[in-house]
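README: folding subset

This subset contains proteins for which both the sequence and a predicted structure token string are available. Records are stored as plain text. Below is the entry for FUSC family protein (661 residues), shown exactly as it appears on disk.
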Amino acid sequence: MPTSTVTSRVLDRVARLDPGRAAWRSAVTATASLGAALLAGYGYSTLIAPAHGAALPMITGGVMAMQTSSAMAHPVWAARLRVALWAPLFFGSGLLIHSVATALGGTAVEIAAFALTTFIAVGVRRFGPDFSVLGLTGWTGFFISAFAAPSLAETVILLGGLPIAACVTFAVSILLRPHRPQNTLAHVLRAWTAQTDAILADADSILLQTSVTRRRRTSQRMLNRSRRLTEISLLADGWLGQADPFPETTPHGIRSHLFRMHTAVDTVVRTACDAADRLDDSRGRAVRRVVSALARHDSDLAITRSDQLFDGCESVELALFATDAIALATLRRDDPASDEHLLEEFVPAASMTPDGSLGGSASIAPMVRPRGGPRTASWHLATRQAVQASLAVAIAAAAGLLLSVDHYTWAALTAFIIFLGTSTRGDIAAKAIYRAIGTLTGMVLAIPIVLATGAHPIVVIGIALLCCAVGYYLTSVSYVYLMLCTSLAVSEMYNVMGQFNSAFAAIRIAEVLVGSIVAVLVATLVIPISTTDAITHARQQLFRSIRELLNTAAGHIHEQRPVDHHELLRMGKLVEEHTRQLTVVAAPLRVFRRGRSATDIRVALRKYDEYCIHTRRVVSSLPEHGVGALGECADLRCRLHESLEALSEKLSIEMKPKKAS
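--- output ---
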């Protein structure tokens, strides 16, 4: 195999794993910020107070830099500067609050201060994503003070090193230039092409396989990749709103190009699955020849074979397949064309986080009524989570004291971290399980690694940087990887301090389990946001967007006027976004439910995917320049719209697994 082909396949696989480069940016900025802050902290402590040692200032500055690095991916440098200016103040406030709490009383006062700091750190999230990071830094300052118990002189030294770490982090963000919309958009489009190639390769493989079991597995893999293709198309839509237009095209042109190609891929995949199960041998061979040519990127051959299939077929399904195969081959061969919408504002359908990734279940949770009584229903989501997190931290800290007086803060840390980036009960339970698994695996692996590497500071710093890079990069795959890498880095740090042994590993695992259990219990019993309720809201949102699109299309047909194709495309992308949100919100139920219930949930989600596919087909079927030729089809379109609307209304209000299908 030529080297260029191998390299291209590796790059395609990397692009499919991280299409928006959010994980890459996060890993690079966090690792570079951590390394620069460790170096700056060592220089600062050596010059200012060498007698107190460099370990604590290095750890403090490094942790703050690593946490604030996520906000340094903001496209506006002024926003990064604002975080860099406020982070030392929040972090230092956490240090001082703990110092005052320990001066006023004993452990009970410290736990109460833990709860108060948690409430403030979580409550400030209502002011925006930047304050989520700042609240985290403030809480971490309190935690480090509780963990290290610095003296007054050491606290002053730590406070002096915080502005240096913030300046270093801001400088790293400027040097790395993490926000390059044009390059990121090009990477997303490459990921789109690579994912399409993988789906077509699966379709070709299905037509070759004779084993029913292997065919079913390939079909499931192709379904998962199709969902991933929708996510990549939404990422492209989001970055089209930020990147400069490519030469000789517009964001509207690229969106239309990808949308039509996506519709053609849907048809090709469906026909390939049908040909493997129901079509006779001659038809199956004809379909496979077309799919094989598409999978090999031989567009001319695919068009020729599709024309032959179209001329000789008597089936409407095969004619549609041949038509879409020709369209797909043509679209893959040609670049997106420009259009008349050069000055029209492009409105992305997908909402992205500041780091350039798609939003999670938190975009649905604020609109879901909690199950905590009428008074709590009007509370802001950040206030609800602040009450939950502060109560969980206080209980976890008190329970952790029963296990270890010296390390009870790990239980409080676990309870707090589990409430970061989660919203529903299912999300919190899933994250608690992932954190427990990652910690357990990391501590088990840490024992031979610590024995092999020793306690040399340079080796420990190198391992910490490697764990930071790998953990942040693989977080998008699973939260388990981040916790595994974090546990390895923490074990190396304790090894340098001479405290790592098998007893410490057992205590850390136990404290993490206590914090995880407490977080799940509090999230379940105190102002809970039900995953089922979130699914219901996401499903209703999906149905509303489908009905709005169908009503708009039917209205255009009735009035016999040109269709605003770009508006319909935007509405079609909105249906895709709502389908993705529904899948994200329902993900915890697919993890925790087993047997028939899990099967019903998968069937229900697959039906919602079918709604999205049919919506794309409706949008792509409408002509772009007038609807005069569809006048006689108006009644049929209306009946189609009424049928889908009636179907959506007949579905159960609550998504009960036994009735999900």
